[in-house]
Amino acid sequence: MRAKIYHFLIVVLVFGASPLQAAETLTWQQCVSEARSAHPDLYSALAVIQQAEADRRITAGALFPQLNVTLSSQERTGTAKASRSSSSFSYSLAAQQLLFDGNKTSKQIRSALESINAAKYNYRSVSADLRFALRSAYTELLKAQDFVALAREIAERRRNNVRLINLRYQGGREHIGSFRQAEADLAQANFEVSQSERALLVAQVKLASALGRDQHNPIRVVGAFTVPLSSLGKPDMAILARNNPQFQQLDAQSKAARYDLDAARSVFLPQIYLTSTIGRSATDRLPMDAVDWNSGLTVSVPIYEGGSGRARVSRAMAVVSEHNAAQKSGYLQLYDTLEESWKSFQDARQLVTVRKKFLDAAMERSSIANAQYSNGLVTFNEWVIIENNLVSAKKEFLNAGADLLIAEAKWIQAKGGGVDGEEK
């Protein structure tokens, strides 16, 4: 009999454990490390860099010798008057080396190098966006966990209040309206418990997606709603805006466009190649000929292309103007974003201090009001208002802490901070 009881207790402990206890526990550093190594957005941005590097190698190939081997075999048949046939065979090796093209290829290579830089800055921008999304999901889960605990604490407090009001009602010291109000407050608290538990599941799913996971298993995070102390001085927004990877990407794209314009203009200059060919040929009636070898210079001078050259130059000039305007517009937007995010970060930091003072005051008032209500020194309406203020103060303090982490994450994103090298 005792063995059966032990077995029953083990089953209850194993299968009755809460989801939070069975969930995987992650720190912020572990979240960053996993997202950095597994998130598909980073792999996509890395593939863009690889494509840009391949384009540069393709463009640079024009500076190296071009070798071609040609094999030819022909069968010649007779005419209507003669039925003779013969065959011929030849092979040759041709080499071509670019000597001068008005620096067109070198400009295209420099443009490709700037495209690589732009792709690298794009990777940093994607990393910054990923960090913000990850930090937001992490904060929401941290908040959801604390809110579940807070909702259960409030529900237990409301439950005790119902018992207290019921005793006073049974003793004739409180009317039925007060008891019904206490029951309604308890029902609201129970609803918020269920609501917070559902929100916890959603927050776990969002964090798993932010980590780049295909499987969405229960996750628990550890941390606090605090940020490291920083200098009170306002940073130089102009420097931060120009150091932002989004601006640097626009700058690299603008430089690449200017190199493309130079390359388009060089189309009007002559192209000079060194050429060389070596080969042999033979027929079925004659032995293999001696080796033929020749070399020389090929000069190509564009004279008239139907206006396509000038059109390409005009298009390249328009592209330069477009990127210059985009660069200036991007700088202004980044500057505004930095100002706004800095202001929001400072507001959130200060608001946490204010909400903490309100919470301390509400806890003191609640402690005093509970004693006064038990002794009949305050009315039910006065006591309920103080109780509700305490509940609101706890919720607002929790929200303020979560908003602080989100504001800090937005400020870091505005500066271009990503998951690479993340220490916090």
From TrEMBL:
Entry's Gene Ontology molecular function annotations: efflux transmembrane transporter activity; porin activity
SUPFAM superfamilies named among the record's database cross-references: Outer membrane efflux proteins (OEP)
Membrane as UniProt keyword: yes
Keyword flag Zinc: no
Protein name in UniProt: Outer membrane efflux protein
Signal sequence, start to end: 1-22
GO CC aspect terms: cell outer membrane; efflux pump complex
Classification via InterPro entries: OMP_efflux, TolC-like
PANTHER family the UniProt entry points to: OUTER MEMBRANE PROTEIN TOLC
